[in-house]
Amino acid sequence: MKQGFLPICRKEMEDRGWSQPDFVYVSGDAYVDHPSFGHAIITRLLESLGYKVCILAQPDWRKRESIMEFGEPRLAFLVSAGNMDSMVNHYTVAKRKRRTDAFSPGGVMGKRPDYAVVVYCNLIRQVYKHTPVIIGGIEASLRRLAHYDYWSDTLKRSILLDSGADLISYGMGERSIAAIAEALDAGLSIRDLTYIDGTVCKVRDLSSVYDPVILPSYEDLKRDRINYAKSFYTQYCNTDPFSGRRLVEPYSDHCFVVQNPPSKPLSQEELDQVYSYPYMRTWHPSYQEAGGIPAIQEVKFSLVSNRGCFGGCSFCALTFHQGRILQTRSHESLLSEARQMTQDQDFKGYIHDVGGPTANFRQPSCKKQLTEGVCSRRQCLFPKPCKNMEVSHKDYVKLLRKLRDVPGVKKVFIRSGIRFDYVMADRDDTFLRELCMYHVSGQLKVAPEHIADSVLQKMGKPENSVYQSFVQKYEKINRQLGKKQYLVPYLMSSHPGSTLKEAIALAEYLRDLGVMPEQVQDFYPTPSTISTCMYYTEVDPRNMEKVYVPKNPHEKAMQRALIQFRDPKNYDLVLEALKREGRMDLVGFDRKCLIRPRKPKEKESGIVQKKPRKNPYASGPGERGARKSGKKKIIRNIHKKKA
């Protein structure tokens, strides 16, 4: 493998002596050669297998010529929207345009289109009619079958059909992309690649599809949302690489989208290999003048220690993307990367994070997962920890101790999410004690999300009592250590199941706690989560029970305002919510009250009306102009006398 960045323009390709690349990777992100960026991992993997790979980062989708930078690749175009879904990247939950894009040079917004995968693929097809196109990354992965699209408020077809691509490599694509590359290089047609795990293809008939589960057709899904809820849960129960079945979604009598079972998880040696490629660990030099790529700041000096998550939060798409089986890197791999960090001229001695989707997961939840897979209809931690779950932080504690001892490292922080229910399930408090002693910088961020058990149940989170027990233990250990360190709770408003009643209960909890969270996440319905399915269908796909879903923007604003009830600009919304729920007992001067009643003048305009300042020189109305005129005359007379 050649040290240095991969080519991003024709000149750089020709400087390597190439006349044609094997693959052109089209990305909605700017090119950052760091393992926290999907395009870096996939292109370095292909390079390690001997393929010539060029990166076409953020091409101008308004110009056909932009896709022709390297000409036609020998094997295929690879297309990804980037590290984020392009619509989440562009819009807030209120569907307002974001001002910046952390994955673009200088943070400038507008370098990629909406629905980037579809737009890029259509652009390719305008020029190259028959070249294989393979799509991947988070946007393609989570839209691989029919899905609810929040931004258009419609049920969309599989992205494979709308994009015109030939194949989807879904999830973490190392195994599937290697198999695809090998098959294409051997001369197989892209149309014959219907068998590879971790891929989605389209076929004209089912004669070549082995042992499929037939999902409701797209027409059936559009006709009845209950059909979609049932279909989605079937997909959810088939996300395991050991037990997952092959799924077929019909679109007509001669068009079927086939999802093959997920790829098998990487072994520790294979995951170590992925992180050992010769990454440049920064952005391409061509972005220097624009100010670089902001997204690298949080990850440049962070260590990814694991993949996968068995936490099972309803609003998280990790089950569909990385899966529930934990994959971990070895201590040696992580220590090697840490030592490499200390040689960077910008390293100040602080490792910002050691984690992954969930920092304190360093092993599968039980032994059977690596041979038989996870339970399809049961969770490891929810609603109660499974009796077969093996809870241990010992390996993580050993890793953190080794990292603290690396020469040049002053402090090792943990900023990835900590599953407090997993901490509470561990009878050994060593991890929590060392977390408080060495790895918290005054504040520890945790995600209880809510305090109403009825909402937490829909979220797939533990009961509020578990979080309260964690708070008590955290505070106790900090007192013993003589440290003043606090918990910063992440909270979510307007999640399915949350009415104004539950939102007020959360506000009362924050009142008693004496805090007002700076960060509040209004529930964002993104593709392929249980919560988004609830939002669209208004039923819980796990049991088909009816769910209340706050969809009205005004009600959502009230729920959000209640979490930040102390903010003066939220007063009217909080007051309206309390009136609606008959909770005017929370308006007053008592300690239990959320807000105070307004004075009469405040009620008229909604703001405090200040009294006009009385002019000491005025003796009556209408004299202000005369007074000013008199002052001007005095000034003129003074100037005359001086003259």
Automatic annotation (TrEMBL):
What InterPro entries does this protein's entry cite? Elp3/MiaA/NifB-like_rSAM, rSAM, rSAM_horseshoe, rSAM_sf, UPF0313, UPF0313_C, UPF0313_N
The protein's matches in Pfam families, at most eight in alphabetical order, are given as: DUF3362, Radical_SAM_N
Does the keyword field hold Iron-sulfur? yes
Start and end residues of each stretch annotated as Disordered: 600-643
Supply the alphabetized keyword list: 4Fe-4S, Iron, Iron-sulfur, Metal-binding, S-adenosyl-L-methionine
Any note on cofactor binding? Binds 1 [4Fe-4S] cluster. The cluster is coordinated with 3 cysteines and an exchangeable S-adenosyl-L-methionine.
> Which intervals hold domain Radical SAM core?
294-566
Q: Which cofactor does it need?
A: [4Fe-4S] cluster
Locations of Basic residues compositional bias? 627-643
Q: For binding [4Fe-4S] cluster, which residues are annotated in this chain's numbering?
A: 309, 313, 316
MF-aspect GO terms: 4 iron, 4 sulfur cluster binding; catalytic activity; iron ion binding
Q: What SMART domains does its record include? A: Elp3
Task: Check the record and name the PANTHER family matching this protein.
Answer: UPF0313 PROTEIN YGIQ
According to its UniProt record, which protein family does this protein belong to?
A: Belongs to the UPF0313 family.
Q: What is this protein called?
A: YgiQ family radical SAM protein
